[in-house]
Amino acid sequence: xxxxxxxxxxxAVRSRVRATQAAIVAPGPVHSDxxxxxxxxxxxxxxxxDSEVIRFDYAAADGAQTARRVESVALVPIGRRWYLLAWDxxxxxxxxxxxxxITRPTRTHLIVExxxxxxxxxxxxxxxRFATSAVPRLSATVRIDAPHDEVEGYxxxxxxxxxxxxxxxxxxxxxxxxxxxxxxxxxxxxxxxTVIEGAELQRFVGEFGERLRSDPPAS
Length: 219
What we know:
Layout: H1 2-8, H2 14-17, H3 38-50, E1 52-59, E2 65-78, E3 81-88, E4 93-98, E5 102-111, H4 122-133, E6 138-144, H5 148-155, E7 162-164, E8 170-176, H6 179-186, E9 193-197, H7 199-213
Antiparallel strand pairs: 1-2, 1-5, 2-3, 3-4, 6-8, 6-9, 7-8
Helix pairs in contact: 6-7
């Protein structure tokens, strides 16, 4: 898993993150668009590893800037973004922060007792928060030609919407705002599958398959 994870980390920070893998919770497939600043990533990873209080400036989705002081817990990839899971004592609650919106992270060297995450692990908790925080524009149902237990074991924490479909098949309900992201999720599957609901994804999969089968242009 660490070898796969290193492939998608910013190159400038790979060597430093090898020493801090305990801070990163990524039990399933990982994507990254390298939006997070490498130095920010490394600073937060070290703080998570040591269960350290950290200060930083944070830009909300509407552009509002706030100064934060939180107990670092874990770095979690969701989709193509990295998030910091932390306990915000000022708000007396768990918070997730997008790494590409964090600036000026400053370590305080104040070590605190690590808090127990209210879920199976940090990745599961963050995924659950995202599942209930917004309604994606697109949804689709995929029928996978493999038993539920086998698919569940392979996908790890990314099993929201996964249900058995008889002894030999599994249904996977997936959602996102972009059809390309849904297609990206399907490329991780190692079994044959059929998109049985979701017209936009069905068209995209068909067009993608045609491009793969087409002859290369003559040189």
